[in-house]
Specification:
Layout: H1 2-17, E1 21-24, H2 31-39, H3 45-51, E2 66-69, E3 72-73, E4 76-77, E5 86-88, E6 106-108, E7 124-126, E8 133-138, E9 150-153, E10 165-175, E11 178-192, E12 197-204, E13 213-216, E14 227-230, E15 236-242, E16 248-249, E17 254-257, E18 270-279, E19 282-296, E20 301-308, E21 312-313, E22 317-325
Antiparallel strand pairs: 1-2, 3-4, 5-6, 7-11, 8-9, 8-13, 9-12, 10-11, 10-13, 11-12, 14-22, 15-17, 15-22, 16-21, 17-20, 18-19, 18-22, 19-20
Helix pairs in contact: 2-3
Protein name: LysM peptidoglycan-binding domain-containing protein
Pfam families: LysM (PF01476)
Keywords: Signal
Length: about 325
């Protein structure tokens, strides 16, 4: 009898570790209250929101809608990913003792964990507006300048103040979606005059020319996702531009796609790059690469190519595969 009880306990532990709960929203429910009911911690409500990507506004949920409630282990949210990308966590990692190997939880171990979310530099992206300031001259009229050199911009009094940081951009290419810029460096304003200012370059991601532009500093880093949700998504787009305008590209490089936060994609999300193959009068998608979004704009995003089985090129189709959980 005792052995049967132990086996039943192990069964339920395993079930909890490898499944997600479903919940039907009732009148008067809030994510705050639902988190309190399932997690005994109302402040965990953002986890439920991020797992249910159809919810645009967390304050607006409706009766009869279905929620996925992720299981939490040790305060973090993990889920079962595809079998090719699983590693096991020890029982200690989620606070259960004396648990056999079959009852261990899982999380994704794909190579996109190698993305340095805190150091996103030399970033090619499409901006909604042209950077506000121009680089007029540089120290000693050099062709190129780098870190610790001095430049002058047309940002004057009222535009910037001493100590302000600026992001420096190069202009890469014009597209139907807008102009592609690249972050080339960072500078600090050291002196402000009526119509111009002096800027010391503190970081240079490439040689900086006086034809470059500048604007108020932007930090493009973002928090590392705590997990990923596999989705069967119909959100798809295509590659617009390859790093350095290359014709073909592969692992380690970047690309720009025609999906943005208006299409419900964001930083950290993972997409498959596919090639369409016709067989017996049917067209099927064959995965050739994986990309992860490192910057999301309104209608476009910049992504890093995480792995590639074949060269990828402009026009290749991309499909949302995993949603980043924060």
């Amino acid at each position: 009898m005792f052995r049967i009880i132990i086996l039943l306990c192990i069964f339920f532990i395993f079930t909890a570790a490898s499944a997600q709960q479903k919940y039907t929203i009732e009148k008067g429910d809030t994510l705050w209250d639902i988190a309190g009911e399932y997690y005994d911690n109302n402040f965990q409500w953002p986890i439920i929101w991020k797992y249910n990507t159809y919810i645009n506004d967390p304050d607006l949920i409706f009766p009869e809608d279905k929620l996925v409630i992720p299981i939490l282990f040790g305060g973090k949210s993990y889920h079962l990913a595809d079998n090719s990308s699983l590693i096991k966590l020890t029982s200690d990692s989620y606070g259960l003792e004396n648990v056999s190997k079959n009852e261990q939880a899982y999380k994704s171990s794909l190579s996109y964990y190698s993305v340095d979310f805190q150091n996103i530099d030399n970033l090619e992206l499409i901006l909604a507006e042209r950077p506000s300031f121009e680089l007029l001259v540089n120290e000693r009229e050099r062709t190129y300048v780098a870190a610790d050199n001095i430049i002058r911009t047309n940002a004057g009094r009222g535009d910037v103040s001493t100590g302000d940081k600026l992001t420096i951009y190069s202009v890469e290419k014009e597209t139907p979606y807008g102009i592609i810029y690249k972050t080339a460096g960072v500078g600090t304003v050291t002196e402000v005059e009526e119509k111009t200012s002096v800027v010391k370059i503190t970081e240079a991601f490439e040689p900086i020319e006086k034809t470059f532009l500048a604007d108020t500093y932007r930090d493009f880093s973002f928090p590392e996702p705590s997990g990923y949700k596999v989705v069967n998504s119909d959100i798809s787009g295509s590659i617009l531009f390859m790093t350095n305008d290359m014709r073909i590209s592969g692992e380690g490089y970047r690309c720009i796609i025609n999906l943005g936060y208006n299409d419900n994609v964001k930083e950290g999300d993972v997409l498959n790059v596919v090639q369409q193959v016709e067989e017996d009068e049917y067209i099927r998608n064959v995965k050739i690469a994986t990309i992860q979004i490192i910057h999301s704009g309104k209608n476009t995003s910049t992504a890093q190519i995480i792995d590639s089985k074949k060269e990828i090129s402009q026009g290749n189709k991309v499909i949302l595969h995993k949603v980043a959980i924060r």
